[in-house]
Amino acid sequence: MNEAFTFIGVIGGSEVPPDIAAQAEEVGREIARRGGTVVCGGLGGVMAAACQGATDAGGLTIGILPGDSRAAANPCVRIPIVTGIGYARNVAVVRTSQAIIAVDGSYGTLTEIAYALQAGIPVVGLGTWRVSLDDRDDDAIHRANTPQEAVEKAFSLVKPS
Amino acid sequence: MNEAFTFIGVIGGSEVPPDIAAQAEEVGREIARRGGTVVCGGLGGVMAAACQGATDAGGLTIGILPGDSRAAANPCVRIPIVTGIGYARNVAVVRTSQAIIAVDGSYGTLTEIAYALQAGIPVVGLGTWRVSLDDRDDDAIHRANTPQEAVEKAFSLVKPS
Amino acid sequence: MNEAFTFIGVIGGSEVPPDIAAQAEEVGREIARRGGTVVCGGLGGVMAAACQGATDAGGLTIGILPGDSRAAANPCVRIPIVTGIGYARNVAVVRTSQAIIAVDGSYGTLTEIAYALQAGIPVVGLGTWRVSLDDRDDDAIHRANTPQEAVEKAFSLVKPS
Amino acid sequence: MNEAFTFIGVIGGSEVPPDIAAQAEEVGREIARRGGTVVCGGLGGVMAAACQGATDAGGLTIGILPGDSRAAANPCVRIPIVTGIGYARNVAVVRTSQAIIAVDGSYGTLTEIAYALQAGIPVVGLGTWRVSLDDRDDDAIHRANTPQEAVEKAFSLVKPS
Predict the structure, then answer these.
(1) Is C54 within 8 Å of A54 (Cβ atoms)?
(2) Contact check, Cβ <8 Å, D68/B86
(3) What ipTM describes this predicted complex?
(4) Greatest distance between any 2 Cα atoms in chain C
């Protein structure tokens, strides 16, 4: 095994406005430019945009799907993983990634952020959820202001395995 | 089928300080007093305390376990569900409940809160996570100040099925 | 915890002819008569018939459902566990049971038999699958000829926990 | 998306004698030679041998792991999918594959065969389980006598998507 993959998760809502999709696409493109592989939930919105960007830049994309059929994957998923386990697949999206970039976010995204923090997998947020307990902000999510900064931070946070 | 169950989820960390455990125990007791059944993740901390309270008050308790064996259940779980699917079982804890009470909380609790909000299952928070997006607080979590208030709200939010 | 439950899984197809349903109903009835709790996949066919029999005899029934809603449970499921993980829930049906009775059987039933044999959970077969490897019959499935015999064998095979 | 993947599952025990491993390795090699991608459970035995053969022939390998860590993958898994859902991941191994080759087999293999038959995904058997119901052999498993024949059959059975 002489070529190493770096798996970067991109998470976010399945229906998003155009400006969010544009950010996600740029995230995907930048991941591919740096030789990374996009891991996502395989559906629309942020996931589809990230896969589009990665594919345009010649990168590989993995979509970990909730349903029973590969037909639900967005057109830029190159490797569809068909789990059949519904939203429980969010755990697999997280655990398969060596770092995660959250773009904006639905409640599903929040489950993935929390699973990642629980597992000690680095999370970079681009306009995503903030969470606080006992009125203290949890600063475990690394914040970024641009897609490039988010991807740069994500790669820097990947632990050597 | 003449007797109806009301399933109230109680979620929270598996290791908690005594004051949090005392709150969870009172939540469990109050659920049982009102004729409800406690649904939880079956392990320690908030889960064990809630089961203890419910059992003391003569109530039924369901523990939806992550691992492969019923032996991991806390001693007051009457009905252990052995899923073998790890933290993906958080989805099942949520979906099995008709309303959820979050007491304090770990990251695992945050996954469950987010799964519940995604599914439209009411969440009552007792000193638990606050979440915000775009600097706007998400007020989807109903706040309570005491175990009694939390349980009262949870029952009032259960939708007739 | 002074009252102990004994959890007996009943597995089989979700659409079955009347004679198979009658056997499953008798299996459920006999489990309840002996004080056991029926664990099943919560849907129709063998599952519904077993729940019907158990309920008629005053027993408790647990349905571990594949989908996202308790509404899919058959009417005699008293405790619906809503997993949302699709057919992966077959593992949970098996692991939650202390012994399993397979009545007739679909391919889903075969997954459950195999999961049970893998986990060392006793399986009693009533007209169910036979499996062989290298032309040698696997005799790990205990055979019964009547519902009463099946239930008697299942209870005798439950390991003290 | 101009290059298409063909996903062929290879299933079998995680500890097997050398002659079985040699068969699995040849299956993996032949899949890669034909341009297919090996999908497996990511662990040892048949899985490791198939990945070894595929990697030797320059092919891609996907390991859908049961546990929480990519460290459990055999060394020839190029794309580790970390599910964290235990043996429930067997469903994902099956659903991700367009055809499946079962080499010899443990009980876990039998769950996968049954899941595949349930889902209508073609199964080719190389010295694997035979299953029968009502004393009639189920001939849904396509039989092969050599690794080459197994792979040839598997590719011929892949449905155009």
Answers:
(1) no
(2) yes
(3) 0.96
(4) 48
